[in-house]
Amino acid sequence: MAIAYFPNMYPDELIYSVLSRFYVHCGYPTYTYAVQDLLGNAKCKVEKEFVKNIKPEIVDLLTRNMSFSELLEQHTMLPMYGRFIDSERRERAYQALLNLDGDFSKLFGIPNLKKGEQRFFRYCPLCVQEDREVYGETYWHRLHQIRGIEICHCHKCYLRNSTVVLDSKVNVWLVTAEEVIADDDALQGEVVFCANSSEVELVNYIVSVFQSPMDMRKSVPIGKYLHYRLMGTSYLGARGEHIYFNRLWADLKEHFNGISGMDDFIGNHIHTIIKGDRFVFWEICMMAMFLKISVDELVTAKENIKMPQQIFDERVYRLWKQGLGINEIARKLGVASSMVRMAIDITERKPKATAQKIFKNRKQDRVTLDKEILPLVKQAISELHGTGEQKPCRISMGAVSKKINVSRYLLQDLELCKQVIEKAIECDDKYHARKVMWAVNVLQKSEKAIKLWRLRYLCKFEKEDMLACLLYLEQMATPDIVDIVKSIL
Ligand SMILES: [Zn+2]
Known about the structure:
Layout: H1 15-26, H2 31-39, H3 56-62, H4 68-75, H5 78-81, H6 87-98, H7 104-107, E1 120-123, H8 125-135, E2 160-165, H9 177-180, H10 184-188, H11 197-211, H12 222-228, H13 245-255, H14 267-274, H15 281-290, H16 295-299, H17 308-321, H18 326-333, H19 337-348, H20 351-362, H21 366-385, H22 397-404, H23 408-413, H24 415-424, H25 428-445, H26 452-459, H27 463-468, H28 470-476, H29 479-488
Antiparallel strand pairs: 1-2
Helix pairs in contact: 11-15, 17-19, 18-19, 21-22, 21-24, 25-26, 25-28
Bound molecules: zinc ion (ZN).
Residues 124, 126-127, 152, 154-155 line the site of zinc ion (ZN).
C-alpha cells in the first residue's frame, strides 16, 4: 500500500514511538498489514531502542527533515549505548545501524538485565499531561528510557513503568504511549517528587551528556581519560600510574549514597571502566561527575591524552636537565629518589626516538625487521633459559631487549618477536625448576656434595619453592637429577 500519511516526529521521540503512532493513526484493519508496510516482512521484530529492518521509503519519510545520522542521534538510544564504547566496536555497530540490520545488543555490548528483571517503557506523568496539552497526544520519550536514572529531569518526579516491555529480547507490537497511559485525572495520583538533590543533579548531568552532540568518527578511550582526570586527586600514586581503587570506590559510593543508579554499580566496575573493558554509560557519567569533570569536558575529551605518569616523568626530566640533583628533585616532588631515577631512565630511553633511529638507519619496514630480529630473539631466549654453565634468567620483554640491545618498545611492535617472547615467559615454578637444574649441575661439576643449603644458596630461594617446582623438574630434568633433589628435600 502506498503511504499517504506519516506523522511528524516530536522532540526526543523514539522511532518506535512514531511507527506506533503511524500504525494507530492509519487505522489498519490488522497489525500484520501495518508491519508489512513498515518492514516489508510481517515476521520481522520491531526494534525499540534503535531502528532496524524498515523499508527504504519509511527511512525517507523519517528523514524528511534531517539526515540519517541526525535521526540516529536524536531519535534512538545511540547516545546512551554508543557514546563511550571502544572505537573498533563503535565502528562495527555504527555500520550495522547504517545498514539497518544487526544484533545491536551484541554490537553495542549492552549490559544484560539481572535475572528476573524486566524493563518497561517509562513515562513521566507530568510530561504526559504537557504533551497532551501541546500535541493532543503523548509519546515515548527517549530521556525517560535512559538506564540508571529514575526521575524526569524536567519535573524532578519519579518515572513510572508502563505495561509495554522494553527488553530487546521480548517481541512487542507497536503500542503508542497514548493507548496505555491512563487519563490525566488518574495521572495526578502518580506524581512523586524526588527529594534527593544529588540525585537530581546527577540526572541533569546524565541527560546533558546524552543530549550533547556526538562525533562518531572520534573515539576517546574513556578509561584512559578518566585515569588522566584522576591527576591531582588523592586516588593516584605519586608517579600517576598506580590508582587507589578502594579509596576511589569508597568515596564514590559515599557520594552517591541512596541514589537508584548505585543499585547495580559495584566496585569492580570502576576498575574495568578505567582499564577500558567496560563502557556503561550511566556508570561513566557517575564517575565523571564525581571527579568534577564538566559535561563539556567529558563530551569533547581529546583522543590523544598524555597520561599522568608521562607528565610526571617529563617534569622530572626537565628538572634534571635544569641541573637539579636526584635527591633534590625527589624532595621537591615529595617522592622517593628511586622514582626520580626511574623517571629519568624512562625518559632518556624515549621509545619513539629509539625505534625511529633503527628504522632510519635500516630503512626497513616493521615486517622485514620483525623477521630479521626473530632469530636473535630466539637465541636470546635460549641463553636466558640457561645451559649447564649459564645461570637461568627470568624471561621478560625487558630481559630479551637488554640481551639483544633492541628497545623493548620496538620489540612490542614486532608481532612475531612479541609472540615468541610472550610464549617463552614462564611461571615462577617453571623458572625455579630451571634454576635447580643449573644449581645441581654446578655442584656436580665442582664435585661438591649436593646439600639443601647449597642449593638454596645458589638458587636464592626457600625449600617451599623447591617443593613447588618439583612437577616441572620432573618434566624437564633427567631422572637422576630429580632423584637427587627429592632425596635432599
Ligand atoms: Zn516530566
